[in-house]
Amino acid sequence: MCSLQVHRCRSAEMYIGPGHPMKPHRLSITHSLVLHYGLYKKLQIYRPYRANFHDMTRFHTEEYIDFLNRVTPQNVQNFTKSLGQFNMADDCPVFDGLYDFCSMYTGASLEGAIKLNHNCCDVAINWSGGLHHAKKFEASGFCYVNDIVIAILEMLKYKPNIWGSCINVDLNPAKSSKHIFYVFCKIRPFPKFSSYMLPNMLW
């Protein structure tokens, strides 16, 4: 039987804004179902490591991550130029706790990769992860930090000869993750749905 590591992340407490299709509180609903169906008896549930600046700049540019760290709804007017530069549009707004949100879900995926590398588990699940549209230098499609790429970079660090597939169950392809995977030639993107679908249809 597989040893499952389920990451419970405080990112479920984040509120991105009224009318935004991404609702992090749904993570709490998922966790509640795990508890009420008794699945937790076969899982190890814990609060994960928080990714730091260095972790996130393993893929993203320092300028972009520094912006995420500094911008808030209170000072956003001071970053008018940067908002356009980093594609912080309607689907990727600035909200309270933005950097913490990125740190938590990215840290969960990164820790899952570390656990897998050290054979501490066979399967690692991060309910809050998979924000695979974020690009190296900008946000995209509800995604700010690409935890998928960062986790795979961690796995390749310890297992450079690993071959695998990245299965995308979103309703559209993750172009930014796909491009970085082609660099390594070992991770095969596998989109499940057709490219004309829009991400907001999933929510």
TrEMBL record:
It catalyses: N(6)-acetyl-L-lysyl-[histone] + H2O = L-lysyl-[histone] + acetate. Residues 20-157 form the Histone deacetylase domain. It comes from Meganyctiphanes norvegica (Northern krill). Gene3D superfamilies: Histone deacetylase domain. GO terms for molecular function: histone deacetylase activity, hydrolytic mechanism. It holds the Pfam family Hist_deacetyl. This is Histone deacetylase domain-containing protein. One of its GO terms (biological process) is epigenetic regulation of gene expression.
